[in-house]
């Protein structure tokens, strides 16, 4: 059984990172040489939709996406119309190591990920990827996102089918060819990996802790960018895993 202090370890670890983040921002303001955009929420971009997309939609489809801390990625997709579930978890490693404290070592092969269940009759896998690359994270950052560093924060897609893998590969090539980003996309495509849900205290973290410093700096701007860039896809009421906290 998990100790009573475990549920506070994740917020405490990322709160420490936020303190360092704020210190860095103050230093940047003083010397004017540090790119603050790399310290705060990843910059959102308007990007074209994929040229290759799902051909025969099914009633339900699942996408597993990794893009840094799962709090923000989950929070974004919980506000996407057509998504019925977004669950934080781990993908890329074994079931035995799918535990937050162990994944945090960066040696398990896992990445903090989000399993997105959606209705492809309302939103396609390609549009899910468009939101993922545009506002959910920065796909050009290797083994990091914002203040979080390590392979557990890598950008990765865990395709549920050969078609998803093909669409993802083609879309990355399309975006790179168009030079949409200043640097090449480093997102990995990792098929054949299982997804394991994260601990309950990680679920719906953005909604339950909107004033948490990490959320305010890194994740709430992503939801605002979703609303701004994809207004027709934005849903004000998020679809939650365990419900709202009091």
Number of strands: 8
Task: Name the CATH architecture.
Answer: 2-Layer Sandwich
Alpha-carbon Rg, integer: 17 Å
Low-confidence stretches: 1-8, 22-40
Within the largest sheet, what's the order of strands?
7-6-1-3-2-8
CATH superfamily: Peptide methionine sulphoxide reductase MsrA
Give the gist of this structure:
This protein has seven helices and eight strands.
Tell me about this structure:
- Helix 2 (70-77) crosses helix 4 (125-136) and helix 2 (70-77) runs parallel beside helix 7 (213-229).
- The protein has helices at residues 9-31, 70-77, 100-103, 125-136, 162-177, 205-208, 213-229; strands spanning 61-67, 83-91, 111-118, 144-145, 148-149, 155-158, 188-189, 195-197.
- Strand 6 (155-158), helix 5 and strand 7 form a beta-alpha-beta unit.
- The strands form two sheets. It has a six-stranded mixed beta sheet with strand order 7-6-1-3-2-8, covered by helices on one side. It has a two-stranded antiparallel ribbon with strand order 4-5.
- It is an alpha+beta fold and 246 residues long.
- The protein has a single domain (6-229), classed as Peptide Methionine Sulfoxide Reductase, Chain A.
- The model is unreliable at 1-8 and 22-40 (pLDDT under 50).
- It has seven helices and eight strands.
């Amino acid at each position: 059984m998990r100790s009573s202090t475990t549920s506070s370890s994740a917020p405490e670890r990322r709160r420490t990172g936020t303190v360092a983040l704020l210190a860095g921002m103050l230093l940047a303001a003083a010397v004017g040489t540090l790119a603050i955009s790399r310290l705060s929420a990843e910059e959102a971009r308007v990007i074209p939709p994929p040229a290759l997309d799902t051909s025969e939609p099914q009633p339900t489809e699942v996408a597993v996406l990794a893009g840094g801390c799962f709090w923000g990625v989950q929070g974004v997709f919980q506000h996407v119309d057509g998504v019925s579930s977004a669950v934080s978890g781990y993908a890329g490693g074994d079931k035995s190591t799918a535990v937050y404290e162990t994944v945090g070592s960066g040696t398990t092969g896992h990445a903090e990920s989000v399993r997105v269940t959606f209705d492809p009759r309302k939103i396609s896998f390609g549009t899910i990827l468009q939101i993922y690359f545009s506002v959910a994270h920065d796909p050009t950052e290797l083994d990091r996102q914002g203040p979080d560093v390590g392979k557990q924060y890598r950008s990765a897609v865990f395709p549920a089918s050969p078609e998803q893998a093909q669409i993802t590969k083609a879309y990355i090539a399309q975006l790179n060819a168009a030079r949409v980003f200043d640097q090449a996309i480093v997102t990995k495509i990792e098929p054949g990996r299982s997804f394991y849900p994260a601990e309950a205290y990680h679920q719906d973290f953005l909604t339950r802790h909107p004033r948490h410093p990490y959320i305010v700096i890194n994740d709430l701007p992503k939801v605002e960018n979703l609303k701004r860039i994809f207004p027709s896809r934005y849903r004000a009421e998020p679809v939650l895993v365990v419900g709202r906290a009091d």
